[in-house]
Amino acid sequence: MKKFIRNIAILTFLLIAFALVLQLSASDNSRSTEYLAALTDKHQRAASIQSPRILLAGGSNLVFGINSQHIEKAFGMPVVNLGLHAKLGLKFMLNELRDIARKGDIIVLSIEHSVTTNGNLELQQMTAYYNPVAYPYYTDSKHNIVTSLKRKIENHHSLFKNTVSNYIEKVKDDAVYTRNGLNAYGDGIKHLSLPSHEVLGSRAIIKEDRSSEIALLNDFYDFVQEKKMRVVFSYGAYERTEFQKNKVALQKIHAALQSQLTIEMVGALEDFVYPTDHFFDSVYHLNKKGQALHTQNLIQKLKKSTPFQHMIY
Amino acid sequence: MIFNSLDFAIFLPIVFILYWFVFQKNIRLQNLLIVAASYLFYGWWDWRFLSLIIFSSVIDYTVGLAIHRTTIAKKKKLLLWISIIVNLGFLGFFKYCNFFIDNFVAAFSLFGITLSPFTLQIILPVGISFYTFQTLSYTIDVYRNKLTPTKDFIVFSAFVSFFPQLVAGPIERATNLLPQFGQQRKFEYAAAADGLRQMLWGLVKKVVIADTCAGYANTIFSDSSMYSGSTLLIGALFFTFQIYGDFSGYSDIAIGAARLFGFRLHQNFAYPYFSRDIAEFWRRWHISLSTWFRDYLYIPLGGSRGGTAMKIRNTFIIFIVSGFWHGANWTFIVWGALNALYFLPLLLAGKNRTHLEVVAANSFFPSFKEIIRMGITFTLTILAWIFFRAENVQHAFAILSEIGSPSLLKYPEILPRKMLLLVVLFMGVEWLGRRQQYAIEAIHQKMPAIARWSVYLLLIGMILYYSGQAQQFIYFQF
After folding, report:
1. Residues of chain A whose C-beta is under 8 A from some C-beta in B?
2. Residues B289 and B171: beta-carbon distance below 8 Å
3. What is the dihedral of CA A90, A96, A97, A101, to 10 degrees?
4. Does this model's pTM top 0.80?
5. Is B111 helix (H, G, I), strand (E, B) or coil?
6. Contact B206, B4 (CB under 8 A)
7. What residues have CB less than 8 Å from A81, skipping those under 6 apart?
8. What angle do CA A307, A95, A76 make, to 5 degrees?
9. What are the angstrom distances between the C-alpha of B282 and each of B224, B310, B354, B437, B476?
10. Distance CA A168, CA A162 (A)
11. Nearest chain B CA: its distance from A178 CA (Å)
């Protein structure tokens, strides 16, 4: 038994030492060119601008689908594009907004159909690795020692994976999915000059039951009301064949949103559905043609919504 | 709780320490700890379904003793039927109820009769197909006088719920596992180190191979209409490795974990993708289930002793039932029937037991003939897996028809070269270790300590790198 325990201890020690060396040799997180590190830039932009502001919140359909400068010009209000990744989950996105939105802001929620309440823990941990401010966006306040320990171990696991990834797959600093691939507003720009992919990714079956997401959104609406902000909800850009595939489920979701959501909805179910040739690499990411159309489309729909309709353009 | 989770990584050392350091001198307490740990392991998923395991344990324990006590043949048979009805009743209700309702309604609609369909919101208890078969084998063996029933309820409960193999096998026979709970266990370094090595290899299979292949297989199968035949074939190939890595990986972890506690479970997979014909494949794939069906269904039906018609009937029965065991969907039934069609020519020609030894048993490389045979068997297996993975039978035929079309020659839309290389490397290691119980079993005999430890660290590093949010094992649903 002694030999067994000794060998296990040596193996554990070697593993921890190896992981530590790897992590210590990793580059400075705050200056990382990783895509997820762009959250820091978005927050810096938000902090540098006085309210009222337009805060665009959602997943990557906002990064690869919106020209924030056009929206800024259309409404005469500064815009911050907070979109990053749909798999961060709705809870994460809304907690982020609770953290940075201020009185007078107008929040435009542009949520992809695939967004779920809790999102992907690993992705959230990676995001918090580059942007420690994001840690409370996905962790529960009701923590006990065991869950805290588990979270810490999981965090270290994510860091390990990320460090190894950086060694194995060196990504060019200005590639599409990098921090430098985004402009000052937080919009993706590098993909605009690239040809679209032959096969679009992120195809999935959309789940019908949205009661938990609707409850979260309604809670958020109460928060917005209390803080004297305004909020509207719109669907994210979506590819037509994918829409057809999930049409029955989406119609049910739409009906549920119409009857239960307290946030004002902008546009109808099919208003942000576009043909395949408007997309770049996934059914949510638009190419240059798609970005221009979607931005104009969103501006037109926003103009008719309560927070924007009394503005003088 | 699943093996590739942090919960299990915490759970296992705690149980190990209690087992060997606190209760090592008292076999009854060790068994009690196994029962408690197993119930915790299972209840972590849904504690409500523990009642099913406990109920099943009580029934089979009582029936086993009653069968042994009585000398009246009719009473013995009646008791056996009670056990069969209770166990298969649970299985039938939880797994097949909605399937039968749906098909009943569909059958009536063929004659223009519309029934208003109703289905029940039934959750399938994890592992029900496995522990049900394990307990059934106990009562049947007692009935056949092959086994003396245990009088110790704790021992019997530990046998039914033993956490390493509770939810996805191997389906252990009472004749092998039950006596081990009655024997004093002594910690043996070699056995424990071997167990850890097998767990390590099982995790590599699950996390590095199965979960990574699953990403590609799911993408391709979920939007099969978008892809050419060549991409669909790649999707089927990835599923082929996903299901092997997933299920044989689980078995390796289960067998390894059991060894840590001084138990020996049977080998469940013996390099099935190196088989030279389908009969050999079925002797190497999910061995504990195949032998279960052989001993408790095929042989009682007459096996291959009767005439040709009987052989054909029995072969179809066993393969179709085996397919249906995997899930309440016509895809599994067709998958089973297809395997019966593959198997029958060999049986009828008397060539179903040609390849009993591992391929290239005495040489490093296989012969040209063996390569061709392995290639054909592997291709047939991939085509059958399409039915296993497809949403429904029509979906499977649509995929097969696209694979059979000229688009098979198109350059695939999805071609993950790195992953394919990883799979080839993995199969290379499996080939090197094909004479052992698991591929890296003999590593401690063949490699010096430094090289060996470097391999362990590399494999652990790969598991940590490829693991994400813990993925369920496919066979949990069966």
Report:
1. 1, 3-4, 7, 11, 14-15, 18, 120-122, 150, 153-154, 157, 160-161, 164-165, 198-199, 201, 203-205
2. yes
3. 180
4. no
5. coil
6. yes
7. A42, A56, A62, A63, A66, A68, A185, A186, A187
8. 30
9. 29, 20, 13, 17, 21
10. 10
11. 21
Q: Computed from CA positions of residues A160, A161, A165, A168, in that sequence, does the dihedral angle turn out positive or negative?
A: positive
A228 touches A269 (CB < 8 A)? no
Distance CA B248, CA B245 (A): 6
Q: Where are the alpha helices (DSSP H) in B92-127?
A: 97-110
User: What number of C-beta contacts closer than 8 Å exist between A and B?
Assistant: 48
Say yes or no: B459 contacts chain A, CB-CB below 8 A.
no
Rounded to a whole number of angstroms, the CA Rg of chain A reads: 21
List own/partner pairs for B20-24 with CB under 8 A and 24 or more apart.
Answer: B20/A1, B20/B187, B24/B187
* Alpha carbons A158 and A16: distance in angstroms, whole number: 14
What single DSSP character describes residue B412?
A: P
Q: How far apart are CA B221 and CA B231, in angstroms?
A: 10
- Rounded CA gap, B187 and B178, in Å? 19
- Give residues with Cβ within 8 angstroms of B424, minimum separation 6: none
Residue A186 DSSP SS3 = coil
For B258, the token pair is 């059991």
Say how far apart CA A260 and CA A289 lie, in whole Å: 34
**Cβ contacts (< 8 Å) between A126 and chain B: which residues?**
none
**One-letter amino acid of A263:** I
Phi, psi of A232 (to 5 degrees): -130, 160
Go through chain A and tell me how many residues it has: 313
Question: What does each of the 313 residues of chain A score in pLDDT, given as a tens digit?
Answer: 888 999 899 988 888 887 777 667 665 566 677 888 899 999 999 999 998 999 999 999 999 999 999 999 999 999 999 999 999 999 999 999 999 999 999 999 999 988 989 888 778 878 887 887 888 898 765 556 666 676 667 667 777 777 777 777 665 666 788 888 899 999 999 898 888 887 787 777 788 888 899 999 999 999 999 999 999 999 999 999 999 988 999 999 999 999 999 999 998 989 999 999 999 988 999 999 999 999 999 999 999 998 887 665 5
Amino acid found at B140: I
Query: What is the identity of the amino acid at A156?
Result: H
Is the Cβ–Cβ distance between B250 and B206 less than 8 Å? yes
Backbone angles phi, psi at A225, to 5 degrees: -60, -45
Residue B326 known to be catalytic? yes
Convert the pLDDT of each residue in B200-234 to its tens digit.
999 999 999 999 999 889 889 988 888 899 999 99
The DSSP code for B354 is S
